[in-house]
Amino acid sequence: MTIAGWYQSLNQRERRLSTIVAAIIFLLLNWYLWGKLLGALNHARADLATRQDTRKVQEVFIRERALWEKNAQWLKEHQPTLKGPGDASTLLDEIKQVAGKHNVLLENPAIGTGDATPERQAVFASFEVKSAWPPLVRFLYDVQQPDSFVVFESITLNIDAADPTQMRGKMKVARWFAPAGK
After folding, report:
1. What is the DSSP string of 54-95?
2. Residue 178, SS3?
3. Alpha-carbon gap, residue 79 to 143, rounded angstroms
4. Three-state SS for 113?
5. Distance, CA of 71 to CA of 77 (rounded, Å)
6. What is the per-residue burial (b if ≥16 Cβ within 10 Å, else e) of 141-164?
7. 68 near 62, Cβ under 8 Å?
8. Torsion sign over Cα 143, 146, 151, 152
9. Residues 142, 132: contact at Cβ < 8 Å?
């Protein structure tokens, strides 16, 4: 028996039901296939956009290559070398000196050595501060000058609950030195 013969042997109600079932299967199959195709197309578009953005960034780096080489050379010439753990104490003394200049109170100071990476070695000083806002801003500015290689690794500032004119905070400041062996 062929499909045409089988279809002819069905009554009107069975024919209508088989047509509806076939149409639903056809629609579901198309819906699944078109969903996959459109999903792949959207994924390809997103991938293309990401690659275009990456390409733009690379073009900027290539265009500014001389600047980056100049910066790397300056860094190589000016970045200090780590002499020992005593450099952490020196960092803390410098920070205390700047804090005294701006009437910023330092509390609970601690020093240590940071993690060494292929790009740098570090020593750090952590402390709590209490100060009015304007002197604190000047303190932050004076501590972090480009040629001092001092960075704030973390800062948490809040308004003092006891005196709303004062700021309280915790800071971790590090000095970055040239990597070992350079």
Report:
1. HHHHHHHHHHTHHHHHHHHHHHHHHSPPP--THHHHHHHHHH
2. coil
3. 16
4. strand
5. 10
6. ebbeeeeebbeeeeeeeeeeeeee
7. no
8. positive
9. no
Task: Provide Rg for the chain, Cα atoms.
Answer: 34
Q: What is the C-alpha to C-alpha distance for residues 47 and 9, in angstroms, rounded to an integer?
A: 54
Per-residue pLDDT of the chain (182 residues; tens, 9 = 90+): 687 787 788 888 888 888 899 999 999 999 999 999 999 999 999 999 999 999 999 999 899 999 989 988 988 888 888 888 788 888 999 999 999 999 999 999 999 888 788 888 888 999 999 999 999 999 999 998 878 899 999 999 999 888 999 999 999 999 988 887 76
Contacts of 109-112 with CB under 8 Å at 24 or more apart are: 112/88
Backbone angles phi, psi at 92, to 5 degrees: -60, -40
